[in-house]
């Protein structure tokens, strides 16, 4: 008898290669894990590399609830050139000598883009305007506005400022930066806005995501490594890292799995999704406190 292949339930933390869309990575993972049940938690631009969180099998039910609210990036911003896409993928639309821009001016510009700010996403992005993707409208030459939305930039740090010469001979400055920000922030929009504030234009030339919520780059694996050995973070471990935990006794575990709404301790009121574990540490369900009771969001036990 042939043994049936079983793929473990859990999260796969991928170190995404440049040039791949998030959908490309999902398609590749379906082949590696030999299952159709693969999804991703939040996209990453094709140019960017780094942490992309995938769910495999039953863990796909976790993805929509993961509070991956904070993300961390390392990137390079080029001052002196604007591009159509606000990154190196798009054609250059203007060039301005940036060699006279001072470090003080850069620091002042970055200070304005730190904290709670209103950001206009890049026009070539996946945001929908009246049901149509923004990048589709942009490619068709349509003139449209994207409304600004609130984002939080917890930290925006410049590690290095390098003089460089662009391909067209323009004197540019390359800034090596790190950004810690809320979900939904466009790093290329930060590059664009910093360049606009300094009067020379700017775009993003490199980007690496080093953290998504609790999942860091040192736990990520490249697609080649995953092809050699599929490394899945077990669903219980993934849930424990992402959510507050609540351990129940065997009796209450049975009741929960039979659809009974358990009374929840006061400490979980307003806590958002809570991961419920049985005495053996098995992950049973994701619940939310509602009028003192545990409302099931997804059941795994």
UniProtKB/TrEMBL annotation:
Residues 188-230 form the tRNA pseudouridylate synthase B C-terminal domain. The active site is at residue 45. It catalyses: uridine(55) in tRNA = pseudouridine(55) in tRNA. Gene3D superfamilies: Pseudouridine synthase, PUA domain. GO terms for molecular function: RNA binding; tRNA pseudouridine(55) synthase activity. Coiled coil: none annotated. It is an enzyme of class 5 (isomerase). Keywords: Isomerase, tRNA processing. InterPro entries: PsdUridine_synth_cat_dom_sf, PsdUridine_synth_N, PUA-like_sf, PUA_sf, tRNA_psdUridine_synth_fam2_C, tRNA_psdUridine_synth_TruB, TruB_C. GO terms for biological process: mRNA pseudouridine synthesis; tRNA pseudouridine synthesis. Residues 31-187 form the Pseudouridine synthase II N-terminal domain. Its EC number is 5.4.99.25. Residues 243-300 form the tRNA pseudouridine synthase II TruB subfamily 2 C-terminal domain. Responsible for synthesis of pseudouridine from uracil-55 in the psi GC loop of transfer RNAs. Belongs to the pseudouridine synthase TruB family. Type 1 subfamily. This is tRNA pseudouridine synthase B. It comes from Streptomyces roseochromogenus subsp. oscitans DS 12.976.
């Amino acid at each position: 008898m042939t043994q049936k292949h079983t793929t473990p339930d859990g999260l796969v933390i991928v170190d995404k290669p440049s040039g791949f869309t998030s959908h490309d990575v999902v398609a590749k993972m379906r082949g590696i894990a030999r299952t159709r049940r693969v999804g991703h938690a939040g996209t990453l631009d094709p140019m960017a590399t780094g942490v992309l969180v995938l769910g495999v099998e039953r863990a796909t039910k976790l993805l929509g609830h993961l509070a991956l609210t904070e993300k961390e990036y390392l990137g390079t911003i080029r001052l002196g050139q604007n591009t159509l896409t606000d990154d190196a993928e798009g054609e250059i639309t203007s060039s301005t000598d940036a060699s006279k821009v001072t470090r003080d001016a850069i620091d002042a510009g970055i200070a304005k883009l730190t904290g709670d700010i209103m950001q206009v996403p890049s026009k070539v992005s996946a945001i929908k305007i009246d049901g149509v993707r923004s990048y589709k409208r942009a490619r068709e030459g349509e003139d449209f506005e994207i409304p600004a939305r609130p984002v939080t930039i917890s930290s925006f740090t410049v590690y290095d400022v390098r003089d460089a010469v662009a391909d067209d001979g323009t004197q540019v400055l390359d800034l090596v930066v790190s950004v810690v920000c809320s979900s939904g922030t466009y790093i290329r929009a930060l590059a664009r806005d910093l360049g606009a504030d300094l009067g020379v234009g700017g775009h993003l030339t490199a980007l690496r995501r080093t953290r998504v919520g609790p999942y860091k780059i040192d736990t990520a694996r490249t697609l080649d490594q995953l092809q050699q050995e599929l490394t899945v973070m077990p669903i219980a471990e993934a849930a424990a890292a992402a959510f507050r935990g609540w351990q129940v006794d065997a009796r209450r575990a049975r009741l929960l799995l039979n659809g009974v709404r358990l009374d929840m301790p006061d400490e979980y009121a307003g806590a958002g999704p809570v991961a419920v574990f049985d005495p053996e540490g098995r992950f049973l369900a994701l619940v939310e406190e509602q009028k003192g009771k545990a409302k099931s969001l997804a059941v795994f036990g």
